[in-house]
Amino acid sequence: MTEAAVKAPADAPASGGTSSEQPARRRRRPLVRFLVKRLAAAVVTLFVASVVIFLGTSVVPGSPAAAVLGRSGDPAQIARVDRELGYDKPVLERYFTWLGDAVRGDFGDSAVAKIQGTGSSTWDIIRDPLRNTIVLALITILVLVPLSLLLGVIAGVTAARWQDHLISSVTQVLMALPEFVVGSLLIVIFAVTMDVLPSVSLLAPGESPLSHPDILVLPVLTLLSISVAWTVRLIRIGTIEVLKTDYVQMARLQGISERKVLRRYVVRNALAPSVQVFALSFQYLFGSVILTEAVFNYPGIGKQLVDGVLSNDATRVQAIALILAAIYILINVLADLLLVLLVPKLRTQA
Fold first, then answer.
1. Which of 64, 91, 240, 266 has the fewest C-beta atoms under 10 angstroms from its C-beta?
2. Predicted local confidence at residue 310, as pLDDT
3. Mapping DSSP to helix (H, G, I), strand (E, B) and coil, where does residue 251 land?
4. pLDDT digits (tens, 9 = 90+) for 128-168
5. What is the SS3 assignment for 120?
6. DSSP H helices in the chain
7. Whether residue 168 is found in the same domain as residue 289
8. What is the structure's pLDDT at 330?
9. pLDDT at 27
């Protein structure tokens, strides 16, 4: 039997697969149907999330104007601001007005900014912090994916040996440490003791964090320490399972070098289940980034969310929560699509 005869499941067509003579459009139909179903489910999920977000912020007692002005505030001014923001209308009418505006990219006016005279558009307030958070998350993701795959495959290939024990021990310790503990330790080591990196991430208004890469190092390391830890462990398990399969054993019996076995069969077939692992990791990343930003005083969306909650700025909280929900759902859709592209037979099972 030749090397070409040893095929991993990812290379083999699904039973009843399309022959080369069939039209291209017929081969694309399962993928199109799958994509349409996933997008429809995503829209419904986002709609439900918007209802929960709006109702959750609408049941908070008091108005943003009253929270900002306090007890000494002018009742006439409070009533005027509430009226301008639509708080005098029924909840259902307010919801559909807000949803329609949000679909067009208009998240409404901020009561706090309106009263303070610093501008009133919620989008103007959260635009730069959202960009800063996305930059932080994307840099973390770009390091997370190759690092997790490398360490996870090494741990799986060297299972029960010293390399596996070392990687597993380190990841287990990191999994037990919360983000603020890891961040604090990094500040003590690199900012206080060694004085090589800043302990806080300060930026001028409108300035990109990429113009000061040093302020990103500690937040990225903090996010990586948590995300890599459990991602590596899950990829390790997947790699061990792939190594036990018949086609890997057959490839080794045919004399194929271990490097080729790992590259052609192990890594490739461990990649499909890893897609969902990374999707969960990315979602967790956008959740933990809020706490990490607080540790380093990073000017991201997390600080805006906390400020919005403390000031009872409902429009700001609604906008941030809806954007984060949309990011979560988008990650799921992209992960499902990538998984189907890697494993075509899933198109007919979705």
1. 91
2. 80
3. helix
4. 999 999 999 999 999 999 999 899 989 988 988 999 999 99
5. coil
6. 24-58, 64-69, 75-84, 91-103, 111-116, 122-157, 162-175, 179-186, 214-243, 246-253, 258-261, 267-296, 301-310, 314-342
7. yes
8. 92
9. 55
pLDDT digits (tens, 9 = 90+) for 41-50: 999 999 999 9
Whether 173 and 227 map to the same domain: the answer is yes
Neighbours of 281 (CB within 10 A): 23
Does residue 240 share a domain with residue 289? yes
Closest CA to 344 of 96, 12, 39: 12
CA distances from 189 to 136, 194, 223, 295 (A): 21, 6, 16, 15
In degrees and rounded to multiples of 5, residue 256 shows phi and psi of -70, 135
Q: Within this chain, do residues 143 and 157 fall inside the same structural domain, yes or no?
A: yes
Read off the pTM: 0.81
DSSP per residue, 20-87: TTS-HHHHHHHHHHHHHHHHHHHHHHHHHHHHHHHHHHHSSSS-HHHHHH-TTS-HHHHHHHHHHTTT
Domain of residue 38, residue span = 23-120+313-326+342-350
Distance CA 133, CA 320 (A): 12
Same domain, 109 and 164: no
Sole residue written with tokens 């045919």: 254
Q: Residues near 150 by Cβ (< 8 Å), separated by ≥ 6?
A: none
Whether residue 307 sits in one domain with residue 318:
no
Residue 117 predicted with pLDDT over 80:
no
> Is residue 112 a part of any domain in this protein?
yes
CATH number of 242's domain:
1.10.3720.10
Q: Which amino acid is present at 114?
A: K
Q: Note the pLDDT tens digit of each residue in 249-275.
A: 888 888 888 788 887 777 777 777 788
Distance CA 226, CA 229 (A): 5
Chain segment 183-225, per-residue pLDDT in tens: 999 999 999 999 899 988 888 888 889 988 999 999 999 999 8
* Measured torsion, CA atoms of residues 68, 71, 75, 77, in degrees rounded to the nearest 10: -30
